[in-house]
Design a protein that fits this description.
Elements lengths: L1 E5 L4 E5 L18 E2 L33 H12 L145 E2 L15 E2 L15 H5 L22 E4 L3 E5 L12 H14 L5 H8 L6 E3 L15 H7 L5 E3 L4 H13 L4 E4 L10 E8 L4 E5 L7 E5 L13 E3 L4 H4 L3 E3 L2 E3 L9 H17 L2 E4 L5 E5 L1 H13 L4 H4 L12 H26 L10 H18 L15 H19 L9
Parallel strand pairs: 4-5
Antiparallel strand pairs: 1-2, 1-3, 6-7, 7-11, 8-18, 9-16, 10-11, 10-16, 11-12, 12-13, 14-15, 17-18
Length: 648
């Protein structure tokens, strides 16, 4: 048997009839962050597979491997490097190339959004106009690199060496540049708004006309820095040891003083002149298209939302990335939502238990980016269509559950367009399909046996005592000013103990079921799994309206998956946040221990490759006893997670 895992250890596929993946059909599968290191891919069909973040180092590939051309380029770079190579305009989005040798490479206009290039050597490389939004560039070597008008929004450049780099007009808004070396770098007209430059070395760099509004400059070294009247600093900050240079010709004659009439109105400053258009960072925003038949948005992320406990949050992840133009860390979104600390169970092991949550996971995530997101349940398709028209017109996709025909109620995805005459929407990432396509709306096309448009909703059980809702939608709405990062982190840390503590909610539907969340769910499974009388309980008489009772593998797997992926995400996020909140570092080992306890339970219950039914390990008393022990230990770890910790 061969097992294909993600880089974080999650099982993606199992092959029972061989010892390698050679010759397998993996077409169209979601292989996000797959670890192919050491796998034999000769003869394997990987066409149209979603391979963002895949580790191809050490994989065996030859002419019989069927794959898109970009995969072969990634394989060559991962295994042989690309020093001096011509990669102009290459599509390397999400590439996993840590420590790759790209010295002197031509990467002008290349697409590297969300790529993993930690510790890579890009000395003297030409990245002018390249897209590096959200790229992982920790400790990367970029001395003398050309990054003119490159887009590095929210990129992680912690500890990077950018000495002597050409960064004129570069977009570095929100970039993490703690401890980065920018000695002698040219940052004229660069956008560094809200960038993190704590402990960075900027000796002798040129900041003329640069925008450092709201940047974090704690203990940065500004010796010999050059600036002009158009340089925008955070608040009243002015560094020591800098050199004021004459304003460029296009800025001369413009007074930056606050006029008396502005002071009389209580204003502290007036808008400063913008840099020339040719120097503004290029940012690709939402693109709306209108035809005689339809209106739709292009470029919305196509990563599948799947059918599982976090499918709606995955849809929100895609919507926020599209609207903000940022690459967002999904681990951090799990923490902001509270889902990183979730757990579920129910007394009847009912099949929709994975939807149970004591808090709404979507609204706080939307709020963290300045959106007043809201749940909507329109009374009719016409009302839903009006909402979609309003949002699409503003360049914002709409989250929707259970909307597409021929799917049923579980999946979620993004509505990215509407038909002017027919009841059809365009969907991106809907269910398990990683693609964008037009589909009819359930219950609105006159086709028999399609059912009405209703969907499964996670996060509103405590307030509505229902999982199923008619026409469920989540609308971002207009964007306001996002809260300060410290406020966002503080809010998430207040929510985490509430989710960990959990609650119980009983409903009268489906024969009467009680759902447990948080530590209550873990305690229930620890006690109930060893003692449950199976198959007697399965064969016992049930109420006439009982629905989905005794789906034990699915319920236990969902809880294990929440703990494993959630606590792992929290550990990685807390490790990053500890730079601002040092006390969080002490919680990382506890979170990792909880994740390690849950992973074997999840692995034992996941479908085997290629997608066979889950094994019936729940019938084994010894296995149930071990699973119960693991849930009990996770409960103890969760109990002490925040109780002994407090902010400094």
């Amino acid at each position: 048997m061969v097992v294909l895992r993600r880089r974080d250890g999650a099982v993606l596929a199992r092959r029972m009839d061989g010892e390698s993946l050679a010759g397998c059909d993996l077409r169209g599968l979601n292989l996000l962050n797959a670890d192919f290191n050491g796998h034999d891919l000769r003869g394997t069909d990987l066409r149209k597979a979603y391979l963002r973040g895949a580790d191809l180092k050490g994989a065996l590939i030859d002419e019989t491997t069927r794959a898109d051309p970009s995969l072969r380029v990634l394989w060559e770079l991962a295994n042989h490097g690309g020093a001096g190579r011509n990669l102009r305009g290459a599509d390397l989005n999400g590439a996993f190339l840590p420590a790759v040798d790209l010295r002197g490479a031509d990467l002008r206009g290349a697409h590297l959004n969300g790529s993993y290039l930690d510790r890579a050597d890009l000395s003297d490389a030409n990245l002018s106009g390249a897209g590096l939004t959200g790229a992982h560039l920790r400790e990367v070597l970029l001395p003398r690199a050309r990054l003119r008008e490159a887009v590095l929004i929210s990129a992680d450049l912690t500890g990077a060496d950018l000495s002597g780099a050409e960064l004129t007009g570069a977009g570095l808004r929100g970039a993490a540049m703690t401890r980065a070396s920018l000695r002698g770098a040219n940052l004229q007209y660069a956008d560094l708004e809200n960038a993190e430059l704590g402990l960075a070395v900027l000796q002798g760099c040129d900041l003329c006309e640069a925008n450092l509004s709201h940047a974090h400059l704690r203990d940065a070294d500004f010796e010999g820095v050059r600036f002009s009247g158009g340089t925008r600093w955070p608040g009243l900050f002015r560094p020591d040891g800098v050199v004021r240079v004459p304003d460029p010709p296009e800025m001369r004659g413009l007074s930056l003083a606050v006029p008396a009439e502005a002071l009389s109105r209580g204003l502290s400053r007036v808008a400063e002149p913008a840099p020339p258009a040719r120097h503004r960072p290029r940012r690709s925003g939402p693109t709306r298209h209108s035809t005689r038949a339809s209106v739709y948005l292009s470029g919305v992320p196509e990563a599948a939302c799947g059918i599982g406990w976090d499918m709606a949050l995955r849809a929100l992840h895609g919507a926020l990335e599209y609207v903000t133009g940022l690459h967002l860390d999904y681990d951090e979104l799990l923490v902001l939502s509270g889902d990183a600390f979730a757990a579920v169970a129910s007394d009847k092991y009912q099949d929709a238990t994975y939807l149970a949550s004591c808090t709404d996971p979507l609204t706080p995530v939307a709020a963290a980016f300045g959106f007043r997101g809201r749940w909507c349940f329109p009374d009719s398709y016409a009302e839903a269509r009006d909402l979609v028209m309003q949002e699409i017109g503003a360049g914002r996709p709409v989250l929707a559950g259970g909307a597409a025909n021929p799917y049923g109620c579980p999946p979620w995805g993004l509505i990215t367009g509407y038909d002017r005459k027919r009841p059809w929407f365009c969907f991106a990432g809907y269910g398990t399909r990683a693609e964008t396509r037009w589909m009819p709306v359930r219950g609105e096309t006159g086709e028999p046996d399609t059912g009405p448009w209703n969907g499964r909703v996670r996060g509103l059980l405590a307030s509505t005592h229902r999982f199923w809702h008619d026409r469920p939608m989540f609308v971002l709405g207009p964007r306001g000013l996002p809260p300060e990062r410290r406020e966002v982190i503080t809010d998430a840390l207040r929510r985490a103990p509430e989710v960990l503590a959990g609650t119980s909610v009983s409903i009268g539907d489906w024969g009467g079921v009680t759902y447990h969340t948080g530590r209550e769910a873990l305690a229930f499974l620890a006690e109930d799994l060893p003692r449950i009388d199976w198959p007697a309980v399965r064969d016992a008489p049930k109420p006439a309206d009982a629905h989905g009772w005794w789906e034990r593998p699915g319920v236990v797997a969902a809880c294990a998956d929440m703990v494993w992926r959630g606590r792992s995400a929290a550990a990685r996020t807390f490790r990053q946040w500890s730079a601002e909140q040092p006390w969080l570092a002490a919680m990382v080992p506890t979170l990792e221990a909880a994740a390690a306890l849950a992973q074997p339970v999840y692995d034992a219950l996941t479908p085997r490759w290629p997608w066979e039914a889950a094994p019936s390990v729940c019938d084994n008393p010894a296995w149930r006893q071990d699973a119960a022990r693991r849930f009990a230990e996770i409960d103890k770890l969760d109990a002490g997670l925040f109780s002994a910790q407090s902010p400094a």
